[in-house]
Amino acid sequence: MAKLTPKALNKKPLNPLLSTPILVYLALILSLLLILFLSQQHLSQFSFPFSSPDANDLTLFRRATTHTTTHIFTLIKPKPKIAFLFLTNSNLTFAPLWEKFFVGNNHLFNIYVHADPTTYVASPGGVFQNRFIPSKPTKRYSPSLIAAARRLLASALLDDPLNQYFALISQRCIPLFSFQFIYNYLFKNQLKSFANSSEFNLLYPSYIEILSEAENLNIRYNARGENVMMPEVPFEDFRVGSQFFILNRKHTKVVLRDQKLWNKFQIPCTNKYYCYPEEHYFSTLLSMEDLKGCTGFTLTRVNWTGAVYGHPHLYTPAEVSPELFRQLRVSNWSYSYLFARKFSPECLAPLMNIADDVIFRD
């Protein structure tokens, strides 16, 4: 046995945490965590836009609802994002206003555009560049607008796991506040019962209008024929609501997984003048599936005074003023209006003139 000398006895043992192999190992772990974090923050899970125009919608929806990702959200809590889903059949006239709205917040939102392929829609560039998804024709008085909204929801669900809110926006819709105001408003209202959830998929309330009473509701229910909606959709479960909404991630998956109600709403209407599938499908489905998880109200202000053939009041340049925005922001409910429609394309110039001093000054 080797004899221990006084010099050997006085030598301090090497700290294992300072040994070279341990340092290399820790460095590799930290590097991996950093790469994973950056990939969640900046990279899509799939190559955008995920599918060709001829792809089967059911295949897209199945991918969106069954795909799972491995997250490090328990170690690093990235901020959730809002997916803005633009549904249009003409050019995005108000793109400059939205560009000003989004500036400086790239890490908090994603954009997806469904443009009717039968109408040429030029990309406005900027934040909208390369954000057009494969689209199919849309037509009023048909379920095609529901299908378009579902394609937008599926694309956003696949694209980024940080998308937690999905806001459907029309081509004639504008924001009423700054991006930060809207972002903070949505994410401060997390449902308390899920506040301690261990998953990043926190459940926030969905803002969708759900009305059980409306003018001509019985005629709308039978627009496809007498009792055609039975037995899947009894009249007492039939609901009406705004075409535009803000859904949470859970309800987005509910919409994409549904086939039972979708089969009914795909049936062509025999009375097209009372056929508004996009105003019934989402409200009816979510009312039946998870009414408590929905506010029952829309956050998009619409003026139905003098409505013609289902179209709301169209604001003109002469009406655009600071006073108009003060009126549009007023809500009789416990929820604030965050968006407003419907504005004529000629309103862009006067809207841009008051954007900094009125619209985005909360």
TrEMBL record:
Classification via InterPro entries: BC10-like, Glyco_trans_14
GO cellular component terms, semicolon-separated: membrane
Topological type in the membrane: Single-pass type II membrane protein
Segments passing through the bilayer: 20-38
Location within or outside the cell: Membrane
GO molecular function, one term: glycosyltransferase activity
Main location class: membrane
Keyword tags: Glycoprotein, Glycosyltransferase, Membrane, Transferase, Transmembrane, Transmembrane helix
Name this polypeptide is given: Core-2/I-branching enzyme
Organism: Medicago truncatula (Barrel medic)
